[in-house]
Amino acid sequence: MTGEQLRDLRLALSMSQRKFAELVGVGNSTIARIESGSQTMSLLTRAKIVRKMQLDESLFIFVDNQ
To answer: Which residue among 10, 53, 55, 59 sits deepest, i.e. has the most Cβ atoms within 10 Å of its Cβ?
Structure first.
């Protein structure tokens, strides 16, 4: 998942970076860096998003292959 895709997901949920980060369990600076493209999403952050947002892991596999 790219930073742009993460931002789109967060905005679709009408959440600020801070609120999304709190929900997922990471720092808001982590979300900001991922969205800006200065940091790639770690597997741990990805797992936290999948778990907290109750997403299907196959969604990430599909998005990663685009």
So the answer is: 10
Amino acid identity at 51: R
From residue 39, give the alpha-carbon distance in Å to each of 9, 14, 52, 56, 58.
Answer: 17, 23, 21, 23, 22
Tokens (6 digits) for 39? 């940091």
* Reported pTM: 0.79
Q: How far is CA 9 from the centre of its chain?
A: 7
13, 16 from 8: Cα distances, Å: 9, 11
The per-residue pLDDT for range 27-36, each reduced to its tens digit, is 999 999 999 9
